Every structure is written in structure tokens, then in C-alpha cells.
Amino acid sequence: MSRFFRSASDSESETDTSDNESFISDEELSSEEESDFEEEQDDQPQKSRFLKGAESDSDEESDEEFGRKRQVKSQKDKRLEEMQNSIKAIENGQKNKDWTLIANEYEKLSSYVAKATQGFNEIAVPKGYIKVTVELQDLLQETLQKEKSAKKKMSAGNNKAMNSMRQKLRKVSKEYDQLIQSYNKDPEQFMEEPEEEEEAPAPRAASPSVAHATATASVAAEDLDSFTSVGRGGRTVVEPTRKEFFVRLKEVLEARGKKNTNREEQTAILEELLELATSPFQKITVLLALISSRFDINLGNVAYMPLKAWKAAEKELNQLLQILETNKQFVIREDVEEYEYNDKDVKPAEGEIIKIRGSIISFVERLDDEFTKSLQNIDPHTTDYIDRLRDEPSLYAILVRAQAYAEMYNMEDAVARVVIRRLEHLYFKPEQVIRSTERIAKELLPKYISSKIITTEEPSQLIHQLCAYLYNQPTSIFRTRAMLCHIYHFALHKKFHTARDMLLMSHLQETIHQADIATQILYNRAMVQIGLCAFREGLVKEAHASLQEIQGSGRVKELLAQGVQASRYGQQSTPESDQLEKQRQLPFHMHINLELLECVFLTCSMLLEIPAQAQAGPNNKKFISRPFRRLLDYNERQAFTGPPENTRDHIMSAAKALASGEWERAKDYILAIKIWDLMTETQQIKDMLVRKIQEEGLRTYLFTYASYYSTLGLSQLSTMFDLPVSRVSAIIAKIIWNEELAASLDQVSQCVVLHQVEPSRLQVLAVQFAEKAANLVDQNERLSTAGRDTVKVHN
After folding, report:
1. Domain-wise residue ranges, the chain
2. Are 151 and 157 in contact (CB under 8 A)?
3. Euclidean distance between the first and final Cα of the chain, in Å?
4. Distances from the Cα of 332 to the Cαs of 310, 367, 719, in angstroms?
5. Which residues of the chain have pLDDT under 50?
6. Residue partners of 792: CB distance under 8 A and separation at least 6
7. Where do the H-state alpha helices sit in 44-126?
8. CA-based Rg of the chain, rounded to a whole angstrom?
9. Per residue, what are the HEC states of 425-454?
10. What is the pTM of this model?
11. Phi/psi of residue 751, each to 5°?
């Protein structure tokens, strides 16, 4: 029976005499038990029974019952045994040509070797591992030769495993090149194991007090500098030195992307390596890894990259570009193979060009994306947003620098990717802001930076040159986005006819529903800006036509990517769709004022709808603007209407005043809207609105009261609506020419002669049929538009 069970029973029997004693001391053991205990100690090393991980007496008892003794193996012996098992499995796979088994077991064997050759109790590389590697290389060459000549090929899984083994063996052969060469020279001599000296028998363990004193004395005698730092997870932290520069860099690169890798620790190691780097090649390789690790820090943790990490990546990217610009022997390209430097520094010969695999443009694009994400997540009504926006000129300077670098080596695809990013930072800005951005970027960059594409700093010419370069690209998305940015820029600077003609000639409105969502959002922004441009130039009908599709949809925020609207018809949105929707949102400084947009649309609708309603009569159901008509009907149904409070109330009050012929009241209501102050050239816009209200008031008055008059004097109408007589005459002549009113002008008496003509039954029916056909066409168009929107949502 185990002594622990015996002690437990003894303690139970002695509880009456001594409650404080819970264990039996070693002195209370019987002499027979001591002799048995010493015999067990001679067979295996002594272990304290109270140490964690010590073998329980129940296990010892079960071993004794089955007639065997428990064998204790060291960690080293266990690993060696695991390696031997893997080697045997690989030998079986070699006989059967089972590359899947060989690949799996070789991966296990490599991991065992890696664990055994690192850490505190490291051992030399097992010679059996080298032997298996060489044999597998020979088998691989033999298999490849047979595969070429044989008609029947191996299975897809076996072939895939063989290809992976080829890559693995190539990597291992480079790592253990010297050992493999030694084996190939003389395999028998290489595999001879050196004779191990017989170890002296371990002395009997001393008492716990003596062992503790000895251990304390030995620790005190050791030099404290010999201790090794241990990092997170028990891994040994080795300070990098110049001698092992590329070894440490290789370890960091291999650890990237693995599950338990501490990204902050890897970034810190790369920063130390950057300080130790002396040659351009060392700095380039470290910077490529360091910038990538910066972008890996916030994977899945936060919404955007921390500001400190972003600024560090920006600084290091500038440093990398400066090294490449001053050391033109080194070129970073995406379309080259991985450069093999065999853990040695590279110093190119005279005229030699070293091509390193990498992508400067990807770094620039990721830096730009992270900047946009930060603006999307920062509250735009705080000073943090303004402070973050101050980093845009430095980011724009990096775009200019990367473009010049890509032009230097004729990387056409990379140049196009940078140019479209540069254009998207400029197209929505006024000329003064563009000029200021270019000036700051020029101050931040070295003087030797120049571009063949951009030869001017004039904002309009700059946008034209950027767009003209993208028009010549084979990628359609670049051409489409460049066209839309160009149209937006023209519309922003009051060039309505140029922007409209470009849009009509491009035929984008016919194929835009097939484009990606970001391009559709840009198209919607361009259409809205064209409408605002037409309104500023006094083209009310054109402005209403441009804004009607966007503003009349009821989803303005969603279509312009300026907010997420609640789903209609009770549809439940998924978290993935919500996340994608938030990623599409534009930063606040790129927004178009939605209140101003609504005000312009309703004002244009009022100036078109009220005269048309007066002409058609009270029983007419035909309308020009459905949203405006709906708001007007709702306002008229109200039992009591107070003074106007918001933009809609002002426009509805102005519409009712205009319908009754009181153009001055309508003018006062419209001019009382404060949103007009947000537009440039405010006074000119207000003067234009007053003139339009006078003209539409005259038209409304003629349509409403024509049946009550036989003649109207032009001078009287000029006085009533505060318009010149010539302007009144021109408006009435246009009405008569368009057959909107049955009348004629008498130039002698300066009056309008109104003809009271009753339409025939056939004319009335024809008008009704035309109205019904127009309604049918309108409903058909709305149904087809709703169908396209549904397809987009499902896609």
C-alpha cells in the first residue's frame, strides 16, 4: 500500500490525540519502508513527492500491480524518440512513393529539430535529419525524371505534396548547406557517432535543507550577466547585433502572420535592426518589413490605424523612397522574383541593378486608406478631425513622390494607381485649396523630384493633365472615375455646359448601373454637383432635371455615401453589410450639404410646378415634381399653419403665395432662408431668385386670371411684377409661341389680347389621353428603376 494512503489512515486514527498534525514525517516510517524506499531510489532518480508534476503514488502502485517499473525519460530523449519515429515513417513513405505521408512526417521532423536546436537546452542538428534530407532530394530528382518520361501521372494530391516538399527541401538545403556537403563527401564518416563518455553514477540526493543551501550558493556564485532575457510566452529574447543582422531579420519575417506572434515585439525588433543597418540594402530590406508590420498591428482590433503608428509608417516610407532615389542600383518592383541574398549583405557592382520584390504603391495606397478610415471614425465636430486633416498635405506629398518614382522606371500600372489617388484628393476642392495643397507638397519634397505627366501648378490645368493621363489607360475603371472627377470639377467651378456635354458624350448614364458601388457614388455626386451648378447659373429646369433622380428617391444619404439610412420595408441588415456600408462613407469634409441640396430642389420644383398647376387647372393630376407636390398637398391639408420654421415651411409658404399672385410675399419667404449664405456669390444667387420669382409670378397670374380678362396692358403688368416692359413682352410672346395661352400681342396699343376659346370635345379627350399615356410611361420608368435598385441590393 502507498505510504501516502498509509499516512492518511494514520492521521485519521490520530485525530483524537493531535489535530494539528496532518502528515507523517520521514522519521516515523518503519525501517522496512525505509529500505524499500531506498531500493526504489537506486533504480531511478529521487524526486520530491510534493513537487508539481511528480508522479503520483497511485501510478506507482498500478505499475507495481502489473509487474513493471515506470521509466522516466528526459525531454531530450523524448524528442529524439519522436524524431526516430518520424524518420521511420518517412522511410516507409519512400518505399511506397507516398509524398503526402512524406510531407506530413517531414514537417513534423522539421518542427522537432527546430524545437531541439533552440532554447536553453539546445542540441546539435541530428545527423539523421541531414541524411533523410539528402535521401529525399535524390528521391525527388528521380521521381521528377520518371514523371517526365512516364505516360501515367500521379494523383493531384500526391503531386501537390511533392511540389510542397520541393520548396521545403530547397529551403532546408540552404539553411544546412555545410552539413549536407559534409554528408555528400563521406556519408559513413559523417554518420559515425562520437563515443560518449560514461557518466559517473549520480550521487544520492542530499536532504532538502542541504540541497537548498547548495543551490543557493551555486546561484550566488554565478555571474548575473549570464542570464538570458525571456519574453512573452517564455520565448528567449536575443538582442540583435550586426553579426546576426540577417538571421534576426529572417526570424521576424518567418514569424509574420503566425497565430501567437507578438506584433509589437516584432516591430520593436525591426526598429532596432533599422538602427543597426549600415548599407542601403540592409536599410531597404528592414524598411520593407517594418512598414508592413506597422500595417499589421491593428488587424481586427480597432477601426483604424493608431495615429502614432500612421505617422511612423509615413516617416519610414519617406525614408525608403529617399534611399531608393539616392541609390539607383536598387529598384523595388512588383513583377520580379524574390531576390536571394543568402543572409549576406549585397553590394552591387558598377552598373548592376538589383531588383527587389516589393510594392511602394501598395504602401502608399494602404497609407491613404488608413487616413480615410481615421477621418470616417473621428467625430467631425471636434478639433481632432481638424488636426487629423492637417496631415493630408504630407500624404499628398508622398503620392507625388511615389508617382515620380514610378515614372522613373516606367511602371505604367503603378503610375495610374497613384494618379487616380492624387486626383481623388483634389477634384472636389476649390482652386485656392488645390493651389495651396500643391505649394505645401512642393515645399515638403526634395527639389530633384519632378514629373513628366504634370508640368503645371495651375489648378484647372493640373486636373486636366491628371485626367488626360488616365483617359489613355487600358483599365476602364480608371477612365470612368477620371471622367466623373473631371465633370465634378467643371461643375464646381460654374462650367455647366462643359460638364453637361462631357457627361452626355461619355454615355456613362447608360452603363453606370454595371459599375462598382464606389463609382456609382461618384456618379451621383457628379450629377448633384451639375444640378447645383445649373441652379447657380439660373437654369432652373436643367437643375431640377439633374437633381430629381437623386433627391426624389428618398435615399439621398445612402446614394451620396453621407450616412447610413434605416432599411425600408422592415428588412433586417446583416453586420457584414453594415460594415461594408460604413466603409463606403465619405469623410465629412467631402460632403455635399444635404439641406442646401433639398432647398435648391424644392425651390426649382416650386418655380416649375406652380405655373404648370395654374395652367392645367385645379382638377389636373399631372405633376412635374412628385416630392414637391406631396409636401404641398400635406401642407394644404393642415387645419392650422403657423409661421415657417424650417426650409420646407418657407418654400411651402412661398409656393402658396406665388400661386395666389403675391410674388412679393413669395420673395420674402424665399430670401428669409438662411441656407443661401452657405453658397458662394450669395447676392448674385438672391438676385437671380428674385428675378425668377417675378417671371414665374407673371406666368402664374396670366394662366390663373386669363379667363377673367379680354385685354391686359403691358405697362400695367410691368408695374405689378416690377419688370421692364420689354421683359414682360418677351415672356408673353414665349407663352403664345409655345401655345400655352390663347392670346396675341398688340404692338400699337401695347396690350395683350386674350382669346376666349373653348376646346372641343375631341380636344378635351385628346388632352386626357395624352395625360394618361404620360402617367403610364412615368409609372413604367419608376417600376424599372425600382427593379434595378432591388438587383443592386441583392448583388
Report:
1. 3-65, 75-190, 245-475, 481-566+577-590, 594-708
2. no
3. 74
4. 22, 18, 76
5. 1-68, 120-121, 195-238, 790-795
6. 513
7. 57-65, 75-96, 99-116
8. 42
9. CCCCCCHHHHHHHHHHHHHHCCCCCCCCCC
10. 0.69
11. -145, 170
